[in-house]
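[step 3/7] inverse_fold.run input=structure_tokens len=302
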């Protein structure tokens, strides 16, 4: 293979990353999945990464490189994101995202896993927990590491850009007018103080959204905001009631899902390990890789 494999000590462009994807069918779509590190087919001790909006699975690369070399890491691009299919007029759902994760597990023969979920990805993670509680789990989730996301929908505060995309009358027009500069400014407002804004990472996010015309459908991919309200009892209940060991590695400076989320976790889930990052924003995987890697290693050893 001419290009370095994902997860090596380098930073991949989205084009290189997508070139290493393995297609898995789910819900009539081709979903891009990635053996970021090792062979997830071993069935045990696998880390599964669930990415956020408006990004893709590439966000896990730096943290994966900090983990024990023997730890396999599996990641997917959710339907509509990254290198996965993005058909025009498709109806996007969180349930379908959970189906895609399960399809990846079945494809690799994953029996046990630690989930790592960020932003958009926290909702499929909550749905997977709800299914497990109903006895419908495909793999045994042994631990969960949560990063900033709308785990409590009443505390979620969309950015101005997201509010414009959510406008039912003008959202499509806003999405059609997205540029790299507007995209960058939308991410910049969610960044913390610990490290400078990562222009390279944002460029790769943009490229991942642009692939297959996805940026023009960004308004459709915000479906999860309404779904979180609709399924709040199911998803929040599954997260709060699970006995699976949970770590919340949380950027307090995130204006979308920051310190109020972590405050409520500490109040309602006393058994959770809450790692507060006072100088980090919405992107712990990019802004604070060592803390994220440490929590994953702890979850693997739990």
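[step 3/7] decode complete -> sequence:
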């Amino acid at each position: 293979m001419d290009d370095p494999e994902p997860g090596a000590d380098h930073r991949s462009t989205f084009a290189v990353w997508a070139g290493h994807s393995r297609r898995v069918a789910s819900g009539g779509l081709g979903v891009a999945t990635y053996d970021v590190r090792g062979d997830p087919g071993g069935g045990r001790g696998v880390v599964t990464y669930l990415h956020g909006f408006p990004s893709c699975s590439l966000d896990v690369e730096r943290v994966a490189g900090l983990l024990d070399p023997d730890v396999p890491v599996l990641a997917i691009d959710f339907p509509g994101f990254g290198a996965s299919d993005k058909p025009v007029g498709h109806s996007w759902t969180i349930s379908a995202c959970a189906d895609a994760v399960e399809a990846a597990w079945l494809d690799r023969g994953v029996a046990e896993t630690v989930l790592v979920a960020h932003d958009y990805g926290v909702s499929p993670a909550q749905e997977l927990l709800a299914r497990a509680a109903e006895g419908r789990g495909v793999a045994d989730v042994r631990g969960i590491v949560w990063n900033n996301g709308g785990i409590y929908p009443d505390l979620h505060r969309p950015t101005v850009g997201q509010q414009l995309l959510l406008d039912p009358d003008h959202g499509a027009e806003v999405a059609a007018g997205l540029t790299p500069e507007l995209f960058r400014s939308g991410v910049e407002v969610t960044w913390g103080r610990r490290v400078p804004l990562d222009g390279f990472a944002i460029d790769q996010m943009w490229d991942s959204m642009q692939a297959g015309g996805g940026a023009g459908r960004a308004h459709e991919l915000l479906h999860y905001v309404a779904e979180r309200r609709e399924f709040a009892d199911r998803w929040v209940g599954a997260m709060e009631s699970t006995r699976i060991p949970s770590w919340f590695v949380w950027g307090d400076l995130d204006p979308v899902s920051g310190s109020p989320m972590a405050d409520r976790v500490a109040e309602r889930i006393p058994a959770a390990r809450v790692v507060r990052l006072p100088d980090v924003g919405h992107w712990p995987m990019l802004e604070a890789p060592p803390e994220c890697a440490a929590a994953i290693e702890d979850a693997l050893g739990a």
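[step 4/7] annotate
The radius of gyration is 17 Å.
Residues 94-108 form the longest helix (15 residues).
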